[in-house]
Amino acid sequence: MAAETNPIPSVWARRQREPEQPALNRGAIVREAIAMLDSDGVEALSMRKLGARLHAGATSLYRHVATKDELIELALDEVFGEIPVPDPRASDWRADIIATCEAFRATTLRHRWLGSVIGQAGLVYLGPNLVTVSERMAALFSAAGFPEPSRAIDTVLSYVLGMSTTEAAFLTTVMRSGQTEAEFIARLMPSAREAVAGHEFLSEAFADAVASAVTDPAALRHQKFAYGLNVILDGLALRLPR
Question: What confidence tens digit (pLDDT) does each residue in 95-138 have?
């Protein structure tokens, strides 16, 4: 049979071959890949290293996953399955959307590589878990009465992904320092004070944030996220039919 011409480069657009090693399946490969991504980051992931962790050769992995890019597509879809989306309640649409966004943020912070690869992962939006999340979110926004639910979803998720990706990158830097978040921030404070010295508005904002940043940095990060999300939802609410 002739080879397919210009195949679409996505795991979701390619028929899966029958496995030749039943003990080594796609699910096990993806779970181990996620463990590697969580602990070591995208740069450390390779089919050779993954095969070693699974006590299999890279060639064996390629029978289940054609490329590293496809593996990342599969890993992304797997972690999207961790995002719960509540059943729609038109009477409290805002609380439902906030709960979904909080879950999205929490997933991104658990899997800090997610934000850095989601824009590069082929046709990731065709994955079954992401399709399910998208469908359930569309139901939430439709039940709320938004005339263009897909555009409202894009607006909200752009904010959530942007904020949580930046937050995840910062937490990765903290982790690599070997310090707690509070210790890292306290050590950074002298340089930060010097950087904003002589800048009236930045100095004032810095002074307001410094105590919370050291005593409870996780709470401060959440407050910032919640503030921006509520501003966006305030704006979207104005587009609801009166």
Answer: 999 999 999 999 999 999 998 888 776 667 788 999 999 999 99
| Dihedral, CA of residue 203, residue 205, residue 208 and residue 210, to nearest 10 | -70
142/149 Cα distance (integer angstroms):
6
Distance (Å, rounded) from C-alpha 156 to C-alpha 97? 9
Prediction pTM value: 0.84
Pair 105, 168: CB distance under 8 Å? no
Q: What CA–CA distance (Å, rounded) separates 171 from 112? A: 8
